[in-house]
Amino acid sequence: MLSTVKVIPLYAVAIVLLVFTGYPFLYMLATSFKTQEKFFMDPFSLFTSIQFSNYALAFEKGLANYFLNSLIVTGVSVALTVLIASMASYPLSRLKFRFSKVLFLLFISGMMLPIHSTLIPIFILTKNMGLGDSLPALIGPYVAFSLPISIFILTQFMSELPREVEEAAEIDGCSHRRIFWNIILPMIVPALATILIYNFIHIWTEFVFALVLITSPEHMTLPLGMQKFYGELTVNVPALMAALTLASLPILLVYFLAQEKIVTGLTGGAVK
């Protein structure tokens, strides 16, 4: 009984936080189903009318193209980041060689670099490479700036893995390549899920690099498309809310599917 009384304040705080964090999304979703007339008549009501014309209007304005561009850029960038970061973290954490610590510090020093200070050099570089106004122009910077934090998380996670399994595999004749693919990778799935979701959210919502490197509408990603929607649909709030709802669904879906592994990955290595 006493333990139940003690947790009541915690549940109360959790409920308050749930209301503050969940109500904005609930309001956005409810507003997306309203007509303009219904919104201006009763802007704060929830789910008093259900109609899908706002979503159809969002697709007519090019949302599908922006959505596809974001999926391509985000998917390729996250896949390359996970692959490169895991392959780089394995020797840094499991193999002892000269200057390994220095190399690790050089990798994570990228976390201290102000990302947007590189906008002009990256713009000039992509232009000289002939990649201006294209999706590959975004993939390179996204991968480069996602690697430091990804390598840091994976290296720390791999360092806590028991070496006995690896030594047993070496006795059985496994090469380092086979150990990495068949033993290490399955053991670091929580950490991989962590960097996957972290980088997915960051790249999916990134705006400044896309604004500088992309100019044509057919190559615009979702954040640029949402800016365009805001200019065209400022008065039509329900249609704007429909576009925002669709834009936020992939983030929510990916997070809900992997939330347990995210928590495990973030706490991995905290307790030995």
Protein architecture, described:
Pfam families: BPD_transp_1. It is a multi-pass membrane protein. With 272 residues, the protein is mainly alpha-helical. The chain is built from 13 helices and no strands. The longest helix is centred in the N-terminal third of the chain and has 32 residues, at 63-94.
Query: Helix count?
Result: 13
Number of E strands: 0
The CATH architecture of the largest domain would be: Orthogonal Bundle
What number of structural domains do the residues give?
Answer: 2
CATH fold naming of the largest domain: MetI-like fold
Helix-and-strand structural type: mainly alpha
N-to-C CA distance: 34 Å
* Secondary-structure element series: HHHHHHHHHHHHH
| Average residue pLDDT | 85
CATH class of the largest domain: Mainly Alpha
Which percent bin holds the helix content? over 70%
Indicate the proportion of strand residues: under 5%
Shape assignment: globular
The largest pleated sheet is described as: none
Rg:
23 Å
Q: Uncertain runs with pLDDT below 50, 5 residues or more? A: 268-272
- CATH superfamily heading of the largest domain: MetI-like
Question: What labels would you give this structure?
Answer:
MetI-like_sf; single chain; 13 helices; disordered C terminus; mainly alpha; 272 residues; MetI-like fold; transmembrane helix
Per-chain topology:
Blueprint: H1 2-32, H2 36-41, H3 53-60, H4 63-94, H5 100-108, H6 119-128, H7 136-159, H8 163-171, H9 176-187, H10 189-204, H11 208-213, H12 222-232, H13 237-267
Describe what is shown at a glance.
The protein is mainly α. It has helices spanning 2-32, 36-41, 53-60, 63-94, 100-108, 119-128, 136-159, 163-171, 176-187, 189-204, 208-213, 222-232, 237-267.
